[in-house]
Amino acid sequence: LATGPRQNNSIFYEIRTYDIKPSKMKDFVEMVNKYFHLRTAHSELVGFWSAELGAMNKVVHIWKYDNFAHRTAVRHALANDKDWQGKFISPALPLIEKQHNEVAYLVPWCQLGKPPKEGGVYEWVTFQMKPGGPALWGEAFQAAINAHINTGYTKLIGVFHTEYGLLNTVHVLWWNESPDHRAAGRHSAHEDARVVAAVRDSVRFLESQKNVLLIPLQCSPLK
User: Any idea where the NIPSNAP domain is (predicted)?
Assistant: First the structure.
């Protein structure tokens, strides 16, 4: 999707994934909840989650930027923020095993959504598509997403395509009331002829996929 049309503005999203040392996960989450207001004073946080199923000791957070110059200015300000560096970065870095980031745009046919209420769970699904971009598989992928939306069991929050990172990667963020509600909805979707047909068409362009069940942290705007 990175080679196809995107939104008319220059807004993009930085997706950060951190692997936390297993014995330090509780400490890291406590630090985030206590000090992350220092970070969000500089730029907009979309959401911050910890992995519950599909991965362990992992956190995912998404940041919104107006453009690349905006991100550069924010990173410069953070480097010079003594409170942020001293109270969070210095003590937090020893708790982190690995960091990974991607830059992504929302797909042109998707706007960033919000859940109908707080207290649910999020599913982060990553699709690695065949090279070729939307000219090859964009229409079939959109049809598969819409088929799931039309079942009504889940809420679409956002569909992101990578600009920096592993290309031809699409991340889809869903919201469900609970893991059991998702399981029941998935069971019904697998028996829905519209979903089956749309998925069968789109998987021709799929190389791999994986998913993680995410729980929002206290500091997360998306809860």
Answer: 13-111, 122-221
Quickly name the fold that domain 106-216 has: Alpha-Beta Plaits (3.30.70)
Determine how many CB atoms are found less than 10 A away from the CB of residue 96. 14
Cβ–Cβ under 8 Å, residues 214 and 60: yes
Q: Which amino acid, 222?
A: L
Boundaries of every domain in the chain: 12-104, 106-216
Q: What is the Cα–Cα distance from 202 to 15, expressed in whole angstroms?
A: 25
Q: How many Cα atoms sit within 13 Å of 216 on the Cβ side?
A: 24
Dihedral pair phi/psi, residue 106, rounded to 5°: -70, 145
Alpha-carbon distance of 112 to 15, in angstroms, equals: 14
Domain range 12-104, its CATH number among 3.30.70.100, 3.40.920.10, 2.40.50.320, 3.80.10.10: 3.30.70.100
- pLDDT (tens digit, 9 = 90+) per residue, 157-198? 999 999 999 999 999 999 999 999 999 999 998 899 999 999
